[in-house]
Design brief:
This protein is of the alpha+beta class. Among the domains are: 114 residues, no CATH class; 180 residues, no CATH class; 218 residues, no CATH class; 115 residues; 63 residues. The protein is built from 32 helices and 30 strands. β28 and β29 form a beta hairpin. α4 runs parallel beside α8 and α8 runs antiparallel to α9. The longest helix has 36 residues.
């Protein structure tokens, strides 16, 4: 019921004959109700308005300004310090290009959407009817109108400002899409469905999607906010009887619905191209159902949407408010029926019962596209992957294991993932230094021979600073850098010999390190202040102080820079400390090689394992970088993180990749970072259209491949993350037949790391070995991995890629193991080692008394007519002083295993039987707490069909003579053993070791029966 006040006001209006003029005035305003409507007018009730005092407004304004200022200040400081950083590395043009692109997108898109949405809100307000029918609904809304009306301008500005900020921030984050749309290069390859160049899907399609999304945002928010304004001010009624919309509001809403349907028609047209990324079928790409059901459905919906859009537009003249609603509902129903239900029926009725046949042509498309996108095309199709049948036997002849074989001569017994504490023990030299948890493998030519080395940089490890070393002055102005480089031959036992090829302070070795200071690395603090004039204050490796004189670092010469960095790191010492304000002072930050490359080239994905090398007297960090996209038609989309996860990333020894979707990757860039100056240099490596596009965006960023110095080129290697991506794809994509692919026939999988509890993939390993299929006697630096049969531990294949820069760089060889032969894979071999009674018992002894046994990498190497497995075994004492020491080496070849204190002994052990292990060659090692075994395996006949003779323990006459005579014979045997070690003759080594063991046992036996008189002692055996 109307209130008495309302009735009184209505009476006054009636007396003044105002009620008759209401329809005319409303119609003249363009916002009246339909003719014949009852126009009872709702007048405003007397309601108190919310008022804020002048002082309150000032306080609120000051607080809001402070909040905005503090929020923006952090961003401004970050932008300013980044601008300084890019100036340091010489790539300020990169920073300005990215910044300007972001600003332009922010302003353009923000202003466009704010203008469109704001204009619609403003129109909705202007279309409000001057009078509103009396109803409970309108009385409830009146209180909000009264509260908002005095502040409508402020609310409108705030709403438009919020839209501007939200739209601009969303748009500027997509700066890469816009730049690639403008500068994208063609691929020269067309997709099999639409015959469009891949560049359309890589650059144009994402941009069109983005523009379409912005259009939908503008129209949808305009529609929703306009309806809200229409409702609030009475042009749109829900509970009031009569028409629900005024004529003006109806026209406004109809136009917005028209634009929405037009955009929906564009979306249906664009959706056709999106089918090449469909995941409906077995693989990524348009499946049978997509091509034969979804594609026609989208074309039908496109034309239906066009007709509906025209009908909605015609409703403006037909004066019907029902046509837009009916059209929208019809489009929704048709979309569900044609685009949803119909393809589902085709999938269930037509495809599912005959999937292998129906999907075969589309799986073929996926196989070809995936091989192209991941660079695993076979050599017969012009690619670099060669498949070879590798005829193997599980009872090979040991004659292939000769010291002259390049693979055997370069067998690696140092595991770079294990021996970092050993490097720290003998090469740390000062408590503030340290080595990364994972060292690296590289090759050097020393004394005319190329060999692989385990290498590491002696870096400043701030976590090792103690006591007074941890205060701000020492941590950031005194201990500022690392010092030097350490290298040990990978085939040597540096854990026992302690003989490093390169190391010490000052540097010693054949690598001729002339600038040992390391100001940029993986362990360095987040920032250091260097280069301050006056007395040298930076601790150098040789217990002296120096002053940095390189080009790295950002100047702290002015108070603005010091204030900016003080705010960045929340540290007042930037303004108060003398070193920070001294002449020549610089700050070094963002010092990690990976982060520097990522920051200089944010469009690149960097490898998780940078590695150092000594080049022309300086330490250089090598960082492999990739260009990736996720819009390569028909190529299989995968998570980059999943593709590159292994036991190293699982244990945080190498950096993990982001969980982003990719279906194309190239190692387009080789980057170097100077450890002294921090200089970042990017070299083009792969002829890649993605990189070509980015080179147009940043013209002077990446240097040509021809400009790579020979000294840098010598240390280029095939990147690990790329190889892991490729081997993961080759699990299934080595199959040519679409039917076999669909049925998951002949699928491979990467073996799990046998010594990690979780099911995590074994990482690939760098080795220096004979290239598969070659007999030139020259070892090649390779990145290798075994592959096992799916759901089995048997070996299925072996993949190796040439990692030496040259004409064969990147050539991938896949050795296929015949199905007719069962060859044990790494997991089975590891289990064989663990289950052998002799080895298991010895490991238990080594793993007792506070010591810990550490299993090194289990290498798989093709040699002869089988695979040789080599695994070093380390023992580390408990406590902070313990470090891994190589104590045993385990090898397996065919069905024979060897176990000894060194590699030569383990290889010689292989001749003692197909399943037995003998420790007669000193397998428990000199100095071990475990006594030498006196047992030997019984003779074992050869397997049926084997040409190998039966292996039996040779009989030897008992040792006779006095202790002095035994000692004389033992010393002679030790001399023969040393000679055998130098010659590399494994047979001679084994014979000499057996003789030493036999004489040692005789000596101990004679000594135990002596009367305690002193007797001569044999000289110590060689290590």
């Amino acid at each position: 019921m109307p209130s008495l006040g309302t009735c009184a006001r209505l009476g006054t209006l009636l007396l003044k004959d105002e009620i008759e003029s209401v329809p005319d005035r409303a119609g003249a305003a363009g916002g009246g109700w339909a003719p014949g409507e009852e126009n009872l007018v709702a007048m405003r009730p007397d309601m108190p308005s919310i008022r804020v005092s002048r002082r309150g407004k000032i306080v609120i304004g000051v607080l809001a300004s402070l909040f905005v200022l503090l929020s923006a200040l952090g961003s401004l400081v970050r932008v300013y310090t980044d601008w300084l950083w890019f100036g340091e590395v010489g790539f300020r043009s990169v920073f300005s290009t990215i910044l300007m692109t972001r600003i332009v997108l922010f302003l353009t898109v923000g202003l466009a959407l704010a203008a469109i949405i704001g204009a619609n809100v403003f129109l909705a307000y202007r279309m409000r009817p001057p009078f509103r029918p009396i109803s409970q609904e309108q009385e409830n809304l009146e209180r909000y109108r009264v509260a908002l009306e005095p502040r409508k301008r402020l609310i409108f500005i705030g709403l438009v400002g919020l839209i501007f900020l939200a739209s601009g921030m969303s748009a500027q984050a997509n700066w890469k899409v816009w730049q690639l749309w403008r500068h994208g290069e063609t691929f020269g390859v067309t997709d099999p469905q639409f015959n469009r160049d891949i560049s359309f899907f890589a650059w144009d399609y994402p941009a069109y999607r983005l523009i379409l999304g912005l259009g939908f945002n503008a129209v949808v928010f305009s529609l929703l906010l306009s309806l809200a304004v229409h409702y609030l001010f009475g042009a749109f009624r829900i509970a009031t009887p009569g028409p629900k919309l005024t004529i003006a509001a109806r026209r406004h809403v109809t136009l917005l619905v028209f634009f929405f349907i037009v955009l929906k028609a564009c979306a249906y047209w664009l959706d056709r191209y999106g089918l090449v990324f469909s995941g409906r079928g077995k693989v990524t790409g348009a499946s049978y159902t997509d091509v034969n059901a979804s594609l026609p459905a989208k074309m039908i919906l496109f034309w239906v949407a066009v007709l509906i859009a025209l009908a909605v537009l015609a409703s403006l003249w037909l004066k019907s408010a029902q046509i837009p609603v009916i059209s929208f509902v019809v489009l929704l129903i048709l979309s569900i029926g044609i685009n949803g239900i119909y393809p589902a029926i085709v999938q269930q009725v037509t495809v599912k019962p005959n999937a292998s046949d129906k999907e075969a042509p589309y799986i073929d498309r996926n196989i070809q596209a995936t091989r192209q996108a991941y660079d695993i095309v076979t050599d017969k199709d012009g690619g670099k992957v060669t498949y070879q049948d590798y005829e193997v036997t599980n009872r090979p002849d040991n004659s292939a294991l000769t010291a002259s074989d390049p693979t055997v001569a370069n067998l690696r017994i140092l595991d770079p993932n294990v021996v970092s504490p050993t490097f720290s023990k003998f090469q740390q030299l000062r408590n503030q230094y340290g080595f990364p948890a994972k060292l690296d493998i590289d090759r050097y030519e020393v004394d005319g021979e190329v060999a692989d080395y385990v290498v590491g940089v002696r870096e400043l490890d701030q976590s090792k600073l103690t006591g007074n070393q941890t205060n701000w002055i020492n941590a950031h102005t005194f201990y500022t850098h690392g010092f030097g480089f350490a290298a040990a031959a990978a085939s040597s036992d540096v854990t026992n010999t302690k003989q490093f090829t390169e190391g010490d302070i000052p540097p010693k070795g054949p690598l001729k390190l002339t600038t040992p200071q390391v100001y940029y690395g993986e362990l360095l603090p987040n920032y250091s202040i260097v280069g301050a004039s006056g007395a040298p204050r930076e601790y150098d490796g040789a217990d002296v102080k120096n002053t940095y004189g390189g080009s790295g670092g950002v100047s702290l010469s002015n108070v603005i820079n010091r204030l900016a960095f003080g705010m960045k790191y929340r540290e007042t010492n930037f303004l108060l400390n003398d070193a920070a304000s001294a002449k020549g002072a610089k700050i070094m930050f963002d010092r990690d090689p990976r982060e520097r490359v990522k920051k200089v080239a944010p469009f690149l994905t960097v490898d998780g394992d940078p590695y150092p090398a000594v080049i022309e007297g300086r330490v250089q960090w090598f960082v492999d970088a990739y260009t990736t996209i996720a819009n390569y038609p028909y190529s299989e989309r995968q998570s980059l993180s999943d593709l590159t996860t292994d036991s190293l990333t699982a244990t945080n020894r190498t950096a993990s990749q982001a969980d982003s979707q990719v279906n194309y990757i190239r190692n387009s860039v080789k980057a170097t970072v100077d450890a002294y100056s921090g200089k970042v240099t990017l070299y083009e490596w792969d002829d890649d259209p993605v990189l070509k596009s980015w080179k147009k965006v940043f013209p002077n960023l990446v240097q040509d491949k021809k400009s790579i110095p020979a000294s840098v080129l010598a240390h280029v290697r095939y990147p690990q993350d790329l190889f892991e991506v490729q081997r993961k794809l080759l699990e299934q994509y080595h199959v040519d037949s679409a039917t076999d692919f669909y049925n998951v026939a002949d699928k491979w999988t990467v073996p799990n790391d046998p010594y990690l509890d979780s099911n995590v993939a074994q990482p690939p390993y760098y080795v220096l070995a004979s290239a598969p299929g070659t007999k030139d006697g020259q070892p090649k630096f390779q990145l290798t991995t075994p592959m096992k049969v799916n759901n089995s531990t048997n070996l299925a294949a072996y993949i190796t890629v040439d990692s030496d820069p040259g004409e064969n760089y990147g050539k991938m060889t896949v050795l296929n193991v015949p199905d007719s032969t069962v060859i044990q894979g790494p997991e089975q071999i590891a289990n064989t080692f663990r289950s052998n009674a002799t080895i298991s018992q010895n490991i238990s002894l080594l793993d007792s008394g506070g010591s810990q046994v550490i299993h090194g990498n289990l290498l798989t190497l093709p040699i002869g007519d089988s695979f040789l497995y080599v695994e070093p075994l380390y023992v580390q004492a408990s406590g902070s002083t313990g470090y891994p020491i190589l104590q045993r080496v385990m090898v397996a070849y065919g069905d024979k295993i060897g176990y000894a204190a060194d590699l030569a002994g383990a290889l010689e052990n292989l001749s003692r039987g197909p399943v037995g292990v003998s420790l007669l060659n000193g397998g428990v090692g000199a100095g071990s707490s475990s006594p030498p075994s006196t047992s030997s395996p019984s003779p074992t006949p050869p397997a049926s069909g084997s040409s190998a003779p039966p292996t039996a323990e040779p009989t030897t006459p008992p040792v006779t003579g006095s202790q002095a005579q035994i000692v004389t014979q033992l010393n002679a045997s030790l001399a023969r053993l040393q000679t055998a070690y130098r010659s590399g003759d494994f047979a001679a080594i084994g014979q000499a070791q057996a003789e030493v063991q036999r004489l040692t046992e005789a000596y101990l036996k004679s000594q135990s029966g002596a009367n305690g008189s002193p007797s001569p002692k044999p000289s110590s055996s060689p290590s």
